[in-house]
């Protein structure tokens, strides 16, 4: 069932649903989903492009938020848990799914979805956030399109053999997101941290985190209560706020 209080608009073609979010936010009074059936200038994290083979999901939730910025940023965990639940709902399986810090969703070890949070500033006396989600439902970009060392892109179709339209996926995701959002607002990150950790890829394994300035290799111990990646390295415990992670 479509969640109460959330609006929805579906666009045949859009440059980027996150860019569209910035355009429409001044006229909004509550949360609104934007679905782009074709997205021609999708944006990924760290300024990378996000390509969208036909039939994939490109959606952005435009959300009013009321917490300090470091808490608002924890919506990436809310969104990744919602994506995970949506995948379980459409495939009936959880055995091949995992979450990669900070906010990728993996199927059989390949990247099937990514999340891009962008602040939209203040409108109508409220702060707004764009939560952009790209999901490879039908096809994955060519492996040559991702940076060296990044996980191979995969699609739900190739890994699970499940065919889902973007509209069908939006219905499932919107409902999963609304549930996770309500839990986050009621209980804070403490209310979902264990759920996220129990779905985490490579917890307890040695991983590498690159921050742009530094590279840390160590055992992935946990995610702390501020959402930082905690690694046990040869030189001690490191809590890392933002990085790309390599397995
Ligand atoms: O780099 C990543 O992993 C994040 C990718 C986020 C892509 C989605 S697609 C829908 C929304 N609109 C955009 O332009 N980007 C996000």
From TrEMBL:
Coiled coil: none annotated. It comes from the Bacteria. Keywords: Biotin, Ligase. One of its GO terms (cellular component) is cytoplasm. One of its GO terms (molecular function) is biotin--[biotin carboxyl-carrier protein] ligase activity. CDD domains: BPL. Gene3D superfamilies: 2.30.30.100, Bira Bifunctional Protein, Domain 2. It catalyses: biotin + L-lysyl-[protein] + ATP = N(6)-biotinyl-L-lysyl-[protein] + AMP + diphosphate + H(+). Residues 1-185 form the BPL/LPL catalytic domain. Its EC number is 6.3.4.15. Pfam families: BPL_C (PF02237), BPL_LplA_LipB (PF03099). Transmembrane segments: none annotated. It is an enzyme of class 6 (ligase). This is biotin--[biotin carboxyl-carrier protein] ligase. It comes from Alloyangia pacifica.
């Amino acid at each position: 069932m479509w969640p109460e209080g959330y609006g929805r608009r579906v666009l045949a073609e859009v440059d980027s649903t996150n860019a569209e979010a910035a355009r429409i936010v001044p006229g909004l009074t509550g949360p609104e989903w934007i679905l782009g059936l074709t997205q021609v200038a999708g944006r990924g994290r760290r300024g990378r492009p996000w390509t969208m083979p036909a039939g994939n999901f490109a959606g952005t939730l435009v959300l009013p938020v009321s917490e300090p910025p470091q808490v608002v940023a924890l919506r990436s965990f809310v969104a990744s848990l919602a994506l995970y639940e949506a995948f379980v709902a459409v495939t009936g399986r959880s055995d091949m799914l995992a979450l990669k810090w900070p906010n990728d969703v993996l199927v059989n070890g390949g990247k099937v979805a990514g999340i891009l949070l962008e602040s939209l500033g203040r409108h109508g006396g409220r702060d707004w956030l764009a939560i952009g989600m790209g999901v490879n439902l039908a096809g994955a970009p060519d492996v040559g399109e991702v940076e060296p060392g990044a996980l191979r892109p995969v699609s739900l179709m190739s890994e699970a053999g499940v065919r889902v339209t973007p509209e069908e996926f939006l219905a499932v995701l919107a409902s999963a997101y609304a549930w996770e959002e309500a839990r986050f607002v009621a209980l804070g990150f403490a209310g979902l941290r264990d759920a996220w950790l129990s779905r985490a890829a490579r917890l307890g394994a040695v991983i590498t985190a690159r921050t742009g300035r530094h590279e840390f290799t160590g055992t992935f111990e946990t995610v702390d209560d501020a959402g930082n990646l905690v690694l046990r390295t040869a030189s001690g415990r490191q809590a890392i706020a933002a990085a790309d992670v390599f397995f």
